């Protein structure tokens, strides 16, 4: 009986092994690369060896050898950021869970020997978890859904890092441009303040006008110090996101933002695109699928949560007689007297409903975010374009005309200095407007494809441990 049971158990295990998952050569990174390349067209790498680390370091050094663009900064971060490598480690751990859940349970072999008064008894047992074998296909499918979710989470972490790097890069470059502008303004204000002091000594201007020029110089000096600190902080944030150590902190950035595009993007179907492509929505949909499978598994094992079958072989040696052998089997199952599975069924159903409501809420929010970010994108484009087409050209005309009138002594130095202050304010506003546009452009991409800041409860995985325990319920 024991031998027949063992052979049968081996057959069942062999059938279970036929559907087992195996470790992939890249730990599921191919799917991550495919998902992210469609959006950002950048290389991703899971560094798992010294050779891989050396290749990444060499490429990062090459990219850092020239002035960084936004695309170059993103590529460096995707290769060099250790937090992103940690997300890929989590993906590799998820694959181990997939392989583990697809394996049938190991049979248990036990041997016992009892002696006394010259007699001895030897008993051998082979115990198999029949319920775990029966539910193996269900648990394997749930594990595959979980692994697919882990791949999407790794892709989402990649897109989020790329979006954060773009924002940090834009702020750092805008900070450099503001520092250059205020440095020139400070030099002009310093010359003006010195001129005002000399004119005050000769009695050509009164103390009020002299104080006005000096306070403009003082305020410009303070603004420059603030701009330098902001630019330094933005540069440090960019360095952190790119994962740079001491030897890479001397990277070069441009001193001004790129020009505005000739025309803004027209996205008439942005809501549908966002709902179709957002990775956080795909994660929520897979969560719902996994919970649906779990609900079916819980319903199938509602009454029987323990079913073990053991084959027994016993040999007894009696000193007063010939030895004899006994064969048999032992079945263990749980009697649903007090708990008929209602608690687990209710837990599974409510967990599924929770995930469904969160998915619906997230879909509504995604559509709203897409509309809002597109409006912000168009608005910031119009504002920045207005500065470029209208305000700055008019300011240039006014400055030129004021200089001509000053040369012909039609206006005094104070009118010219007042115009210089107003022109400086317009130039600062233009820089801020262009920065806001490019930040809105980055936000628009994240609203369509995912990668922005995680929303509250957006991709929190709802645990199904109560709904479908991995061991089949016991």
Notes on the structure:
The chain has 474 residues and is α+β, with helices and mostly antiparallel strands. 66% of the residues lie in helices and 9% in strands. The protein is built from twelve helices and four strands. Strands 1-2-3-4 form a four-stranded antiparallel β-sheet. Strand 1 and strand 2 (119-129) form a beta hairpin. Helix 2 packs across helix 7 (136-202), helix 7 packs antiparallel against helix 10 and helix 10 (279-300) packs antiparallel against helix 11 (342-407). The two termini are 27 Å apart.
* Radius of gyration over C-alpha positions, nearest whole angstrom: 36 Å
Helix and strand element order: HHHHHEEHHHHHEEHH
What is the CA-CA span between the terminal residues?
27 Å
Task: Give the fraction of residues assigned to helices.
Answer: 55-70%
What do the pLDDT scores average to?
80
Q: What is the strand content? A: 5-15%
Total strands: 4
Main sheet properties: 4 strands, antiparallel
Low-confidence stretches: 454-474
- The secondary-structure class comes to alpha+beta
Q: Shape from CA axes?
A: elongated
In short:
The protein has 474 residues and is of the alpha+beta class. It has helices at residues 2-17, 29-37, 50-64, 70-80, 82-101, 130-134, 136-202, 207-242, 270-277, 279-300, 342-407, 413-449; strands at 108-116, 119-129, 307-317, 324-333.
Tell me the layout of helices and strands.
Elements: H1 2-17, H2 29-37, H3 50-64, H4 70-80, H5 82-101, E1 108-116, E2 119-129, H6 130-134, H7 136-202, H8 207-242, H9 270-277, H10 279-300, E3 307-317, E4 324-333, H11 342-407, H12 413-449
Antiparallel strand pairs: 1-2, 2-3, 3-4
Helix pairs in contact: 2-7, 3-4, 4-7, 5-7, 7-8, 7-10, 7-12, 9-11, 10-11, 11-12
């Amino acid at each position: 009986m024991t031998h027949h049971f063992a052979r049968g158990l081996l057959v069942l295990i062999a059938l279970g092994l036929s559907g087992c998952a195996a470790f992939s050569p890249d730990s599921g990174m191919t799917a991550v690369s495919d998902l992210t390349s469609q959006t950002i067209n950048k290389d991703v790498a899971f560094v798992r060896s010294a050779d891989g680390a050396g290749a990444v370091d060499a490429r990062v050094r090459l990219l850092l050898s020239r002035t960084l663009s936004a695309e170059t900064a993103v590529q460096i971060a995707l290769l060099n950021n250790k937090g992103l490598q940690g997300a890929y480690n989590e993906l590799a751990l998820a694959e181990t869970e997939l392989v583990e859940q697809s394996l049938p349970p190991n049979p248990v072999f036990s041997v016992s020997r009892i002696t006394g008064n010259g007699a001895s008894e030897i008993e051998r047992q082979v115990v198999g978890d029949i319920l775990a074998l029966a539910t193996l296909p269900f648990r394997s499918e749930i594990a595959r859904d979980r692994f697919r979710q882990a791949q999407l989470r790794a892709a989402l972490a990649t897109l989020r890092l790329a979006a954060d790097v773009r924002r940090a890069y834009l702020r750092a470059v805008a900070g450099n441009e503001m520092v250059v502008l205020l440095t020139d303004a400070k030099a002009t204000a310093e010359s003006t303040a010195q001129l005002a002091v000399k004119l005050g000594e000769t009695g050509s201007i009164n103390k009020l006008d002299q104080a006005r020029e000096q306070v403009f110089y003082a305020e410009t000096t303070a603004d420059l110090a603030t701009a330098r600190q902001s630019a330094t902080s933005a540069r440090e944030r960019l360095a952190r996101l790119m994962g740079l150590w001491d030897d890479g902190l001397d990277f070069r950035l441009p001193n001004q933002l790129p020009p505005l595009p000739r025309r803004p993007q027209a996205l008439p179907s942005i809501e549908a695109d966002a709902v179709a492509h957002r990775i956080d929505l795909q994660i929520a949909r897979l969560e719902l699928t996994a919970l649906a499978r779990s609900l079916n598994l819980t319903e199938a094992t509602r009454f029987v949560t323990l079913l073990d079958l053991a084959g027994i072989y016993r040999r007894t040696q009696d000193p007063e007689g010939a030895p004899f052998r006994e064969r048999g089997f032992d079945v263990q199952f749980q009697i649903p007297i007090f708990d008929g599975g209602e608690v687990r069924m209710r837990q599974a159903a409510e967990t599924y409903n929770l995930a469904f409501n969160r998915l619906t809420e997230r879909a509504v929010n995604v559509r709203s975010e897409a509309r809002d970010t597109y409006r912000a994108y168009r608005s910031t484009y119009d504002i920045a374009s207005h500065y470029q087409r209208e305000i700055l050209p008019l300011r240039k005309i006014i400055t030129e005309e004021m200089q001509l009138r000053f040369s012909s002594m039609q206006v005094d130095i104070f009118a010219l200095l007042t115009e210089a202050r107003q022109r400086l304010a317009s130039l600062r506003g233009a820089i801020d407007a262009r920065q806001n546009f490019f930040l809105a452009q980055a936000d628009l991409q994240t609203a369509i494809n995912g990668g922005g800041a995680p929303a509250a409860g957006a991709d929190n995985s709802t645990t199904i441990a109560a709904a479908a325990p991995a061991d089949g319920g016991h």
